[in-house]
Amino acid sequence: MENLTIELLATFGGCTAAVTTLTQILKRYVKVVDPKVISLVLALVIQITLVALQGATWDMYALAAFNGVLVSGSSIGLYEGVVSLGQSKDDSKQNMEGEK
C-alpha cells in the first residue's frame, strides 16, 4: 500500500496533511526560521511542483501559488487548533482537580 502518492498530494487535504507533517519535522532542525514560513515554503514548493509535472501554463502557476497560500493557512490552523484543544483539556483537568 502506498502512503503518499502524487494523487494524494494533488488533493487539498492530502497536501495540507503533508505540509503539516513536514513542517513539524523540519521546525526541530531549522530553529532560526518561523514555522509559519516553513509551512508556506513547503506548500508553495509542493503546489508548484505538482503543476510543473503536468506541463501547465502560467495561469496555472498563479493558481498553484494561491493554493499554496491556502494550504499553508490550513496547515497552520490545523496545528494551532490541535494545540489549543490539548491545552484546554489540560486546563479543564486542572480545574476539576482543584475543585475536589
Structure explained in plain terms:
This protein has 100 residues and is mainly α. It has one domain (6-99). It contains four helices and no strands. Helix 2 (12-29) packs across helix 4 (58-99). It starts with 5 loop residues before the first helix and ends with a helix.
Beta-strand share of residues: under 5%
**Mean of all residue-level pLDDT scores:** 86
Helix content: over 70%
Distance between the termini: 50 Å
Series of H and E elements: HHHH
DSSP E strands, number: 0
Inertia-based shape: elongated
Q: Name the structural class.
A: mainly alpha
Largest sheet: none
Count of folded domains: 1
Keywords summarizing the entry:
100 residues; mainly alpha; 0% strand
How are the secondary structure elements laid out?
Elements: H1 6-9, H2 12-29, H3 35-53, H4 58-99
Helix pairs in contact: 2-3, 2-4, 3-4
